[in-house]
Amino acid sequence: MAAHRFFAVVAVIAGCSGTADDHPIDKLVVPRLAVLGISVERAPAEEYCRRLTIDLWGRIPTGVELDACVALPDAAARVDAAMASPLYERTMRRAWGESLGYNNFYGWTEEVVDLDAYVGSLYRDEVGYGTFASTVVVHGGFLGLHRYDEWAAALWRVFLGRPARADEIAAFRPLSYVWQPRYFCEGHIYDAMYRDALDEGLAPAAAKAQAQEVCLDLERTEWAVNFCACSSDENGLGCRSSVLGAPIELTGSCSDSDDVYADANVRRIDEQRQAGEDRSCADGVERPECVDIQTDFTSAATMKLPPLPIVDGAGRKQLGKIGDALVARGDFWESAIDREAKLLLGWWQSTFRHPDSDLPDVRRALADRLRDKQSVRDIQKLILTSVLYTVPAEPQREALPDYAMAPTKLMTAENWLDSAATAVGEPSGVCDFRWVTPEGFYDSSIVQSKYAEPSQLSIYDARQGRGAYLELAIKLGGCNAEARRPTLSNVGMAYTEGMLSQLVCAYGRGIVPEGFSGDLEQGARHVIRELLGRTPPADEITELAGEMQACIAAGGAVGCADVETAVRWLCQRALESTEFSTY
Amino acid sequence: MTMTCNRRGFLSMLGATAAGVAFLPALRSSRAEPGAGAKARRLLVLNLVGAVRSSAAFHASSLQRYNPYGLISGQSTPFALGSLLDDNAADAAYTLGTAWQGARLPRLREIANQFSVLGTWSVTRGDHTRSRIEEPTGSATGQDPGLLTRVAAGLAGAAGRDLDIPPFHLEAATLFGNSPGALGRYAPVELASFESLPSSATEDARAQSRTGNRFAANDAMRARFDEPRVAARSGRGRLVAETYMLHKRAARSVGVRLSQPDIAVGSEDADTAMLGTVRLASGNVPLTNAMLREAMLSCVGPDPDGSPQRTIAIDAALAVRLLQLGSPAVVLEIADFDFHSGERSEGPPLYRFLGRLWATLQWLLSRIPDPSGEGTLLDRTLVTAFSDFGRDGVDGGWNGGEGSDHGVDASCFYLAHPVMGAGVKPNRLVGAVSTSHYDARRESLQIAPQRYIATLLGALGLDAADPQFGFPDAGAPVMELWS
Q1: pLDDT at position A203
Q2: String of b and e for A328-359 (b: at least 16 CB within 10 Å)?
Q3: CA-based nearest residue in chain B for residue A407
């Protein structure tokens, strides 16, 4: 490498914000770029802000938001501002929801809610990543969604970034038996109970409460043992495993280890006893944690559903050994970096070519940093302020590796719908990623309303009827925690987006500029700015205005009836374009 | 411990989707043309998700431990069919309505000598997670393309251009459409079910006029916001942008085609829409959506609306439509075969449906012209079935939950694939094993699953050893099917 070229690169970086030496990623990547003869230049602020907003907020910025972002001094300030919005945490929770596989068919609603909220605390920097993973991996919500051997499969997939091998699943199996005695209140059971209660004539609130009681009975009454199965004859596997590296042995905390199902090991709900008055349950066994549940649903005051931990403190300490072994692995931290890099860069690990789509030294550096600082948010900020993200997406020349340019990704389903609505100044919908029905489709109707995300009437629902947003999102490959989001587009998706682009541009109230005088150039400038997030050059504006004029000249039967139609026509073209849907 | 794995559980375990329209790629401008020496122009695969009890189905045993349901009697085939696949309903249940001129569909036993069975063997079978990857891709890595992707890549390579009618994957639960890396452009169109089809019925005429009626003076105007974006990208970004642009163009043909009424086989509003013809007693008559749906729903039994097989039956009708469009390969996945418990009571309706579906496809495809003009769909379509693997034998025929398990017995490692059409010689058993043990290690021939996939590629006239889309080390295609 020519030394002068390298220093020139560093000088360009330094002129933007700090030096490459300051940045843990840049100091590794910039020398690589220099070898390629690439001079590092920052992307135009509009391009960077559009990319950043879609990644962190899940939609394009409005014109006003774009202006505000562009006005900030540098990438770090823009990232900070974006991360300050609640939209950021929500977008990250959604990403984790897909990774963890939320649904309330298998999962118990309250546990999924709890798990989701915990993810939020990770991105608020309220909990470190090691603690987070250790907790999640034995969280009731996670286990409820991934049972038996699937527990190991999910653990490897989510936290170690690869499918578990058959021998690893088998070796983990002795640990999975700790949960064998537990029943799970599956969402579909809840749903069936709820509907039965409605059929009995109960009001919806009472029906929900009754369904919850059934779930509590199922989950907690009978077999809420502290994994006494570990010492049971029924579990010859013994709750011992070294498959994660460090040896783990769960010894259980049974009052009666000879009989796993002995009454003393069961924290039975006693419907007769008054809470806090005594420790004797109805079966005559004293248990400090024996919990009462009221079954009188005629008044709100008696609808209390007291919490009952599935596993007590001692049990949690035992289970913590699994998380401890997990976070002690080097690949645990590296896979966390891979997850964030894939999310934000798109090309990361999209092939097995090294280093074209994988930078091992960057991964290693970031993994060390994550282990040290424990902050995923910090890692994201590093990526978003690095040359991997801040340079233009357009390469300086052909045949460069992906790390030599900023990423170009495809909008996901909800991102496209929300961005399209935003572009035309209309409200979008909400896909609460935590709930799916037995058919695999989102449905919040079986979820307590207190957990449901607030939703306004979207332009899609307004034009196509209630539920349209959800159906469209599913059609576009999203809005379903079990779905595999397509990383590339497909014909059905393109077709649906084409139809929707027509709809939102036809009826969107914000796409025609305020005080529109009929000046086609004004209309074109407004459309390009609002939809594509850039300020078009004068010659492009002239060409677009000419095309709009041609549409008007064609007449209303086959073209545009008037100037407003011409603006909406340009909107539709831009909205169904490759430029809009890729960022 | 007895663990019930229903369809949902299986999907959940796989992390697979039950959702709407997903992927595709791959379309520029050509119908699938078979390679030189092609036996078939297209494939139709039924994938029996969750592990079929092969030893009680298409290569059935007379031993109780493998097949407590018994055999269909009176057959002269080299493979015995399990009575689990049989349906003793009266002729009326097989007789179609007036649109079909009262035609009677065949029972499975009546067409038993019209197809063959090929057995594959692998001792690594027995784990669902692995089989979901390995059976449709031919390797356990998860990084190799699925059968449908291989077909699209192979045919596109042979034609020197992408296909305009791609492969389709219905009710996707396994990796038949796996398309790693740059092969993403050859991924099939995936439809969760017929309900995922786009529909022209939702077009809003007013919205169209308010947005200028899609006016475009020329192609340059149409591509203004597409081609510059693609040209300004490289590497992964180019792949993403270019694929989107291609799909957008294709949406104007395939997407629009899929949205037309004659594909909407699940919609009563489109009952009279027709595509192609079907040969009946009076001659060729137009094949309407209602007819196709009626034929397939008849496989479900007397109460199709209350049956869990209703959706699959209509999806089967859609699969026929996609073949009529000229698709080179369609995979339809049928779930819920993992009966660790309740097989004794819940298994028979599902297997009965499978038997009827197989017989109905044989009858129907042999009466519909192939879109190439070369005989019937059955003449040019190789139809077969896959599954995760077989199931273990057990003393008494069922485990404690009246189901069957997998992962231990040779009968789990052996899988009998029925196969018909595309000139396959009927009434053969290839890769046979003794039904007293199902252990292919005791036989002279063992056909690996990978070799069977290679055989399917070869059937389309593709070089199955081509490293770009085939298996260089799989061995020669199993030509005994045709000789």
Answers
A1: 84
A2: eeebbbbbbbbbbbebbbbbbbbbeeeebbbb
A3: B237
| Bigger pLDDT: B257 vs A356 | B257
Residues from chain A that touch B178, judged by Cβ atoms under 8 A, are none
Q: B428 CB near a chain A CB, below 8 Å?
A: no
For residue B259, the model assigns a pLDDT of 86
Q: What is the spatial distance between Cα A571 and Cα B438, in angstroms, rounded to a whole number?
A: 64
Helices within B232-386 (DSSP H only): 235-250, 256-258, 289-297, 310-325, 343-365, 377-380
Nearest CA in chain B to A99: B15
CA–CA separation, A505 and B210 (whole Å): 8
Give A225's pLDDT tier (boundaries 50, 70, 90): very low
Residues 55-74 of B with CB under 8 A from A: none
Q: Which residues does chain B have within 8 Å of residue A492's beta carbon, measured at their own beta carbons? A: 20-22, 24, 189, 191, 196, 198, 251, 255, 258
- Of A6-20, A89-103, A188-202, A465-479, where does the model show the most confidence? A89-103
DSSP code, position A102: -
Average pLDDT over residues B71-90: 95
pLDDT at B18 over 50: no
B100 Cα to chain A: minimum distance (Å): 32
Please report residues of A whose CB lies closer than 8 A to that of B200.
none
The pLDDT tens digits for A315-370 are: 677 788 999 999 999 999 999 999 999 999 999 987 666 566 789 999 999 999 99
Q: Three-class SS string for A432-462? A: CCCCCCCCCCCCCCCCCHHHCCCCCCCHHHH
Instruction: Say which residues have a Cβ less than 8 Å from residue A104's Cβ, sequence separation at least 6.
Output: A112, A187, A190, A434, A435, A436, A446, A447
Cα A357 to the chain's mean position, in Å?
Answer: 23
Residue contact A395–B212, C-beta within 8 A: no
* Predicted local distance difference test score (pLDDT) of residue B163: 83
Cα B419 from Cα B378, distance rounded (Å): 11
Across the interface, which of B181, B185, B224 has its CB nearest the CB of A350?
A: B181
Picking from B187, B261, B196, the residue whose alpha carbon sits closest to that of residue A475 is B196
Residue pairs between chains A and B whose CB atoms are closer than 8 Å? 275
Q: Are B351 and B84 in contact (CB under 8 A)?
A: yes
Tell me what the mean pLDDT of segment A407-420 comes to. 95
Q: Do B225 and A579 touch (CB under 8 A)?
A: yes
- The whole-number pLDDT of residue B230 equals 93
* CA–CA distance, A215 with A209 (Å, rounded to integer): 10
Peptide bond into A355 cis (omega under 30): yes
Of B15, B133, B256, nearest to A101 by CB-CB distance is B15
Q: Name the average pLDDT for chain A.
A: 82
* The two structure tokens encoding residue A580: 């809009």
CB contact under 8 A, B250 and A494: yes
The alpha carbon of residue B13 is apart from the nearest alpha carbon of chain A, in Å, by: 6
pLDDT at A279: 58
CA-to-CA distance for A442 and A471, rounded, in angstroms? 9
Q: What is the ipTM of this complex?
A: 0.84
Put simply, the answer to whether B212 touches A145 (Cβ < 8 Å) is: no
pLDDT tens digits for range A28-47: 999 999 999 999 999 999 99
Distance between CA B200 and CA A499 in Å, rounded? 9
Q: Say whether B247 and A494 touch across the interface (CB within 8 A).
A: yes
pLDDT at A4 over 60: no
**Of B139, B5, B129, nearest in space to B388 by CA:** B129
Q: What pLDDT sits at residue B263?
A: 96
d(CA A413, CA B59): 45
Instruction: Kindly write down the DSSP assignment for every residue of A550-571, as one continuous string.
Output: HHHHH-TTTS-SSHHHHHHHHH
pLDDT given for residue A69 in this prediction: 98
The model scores a pTM over 0.80: no
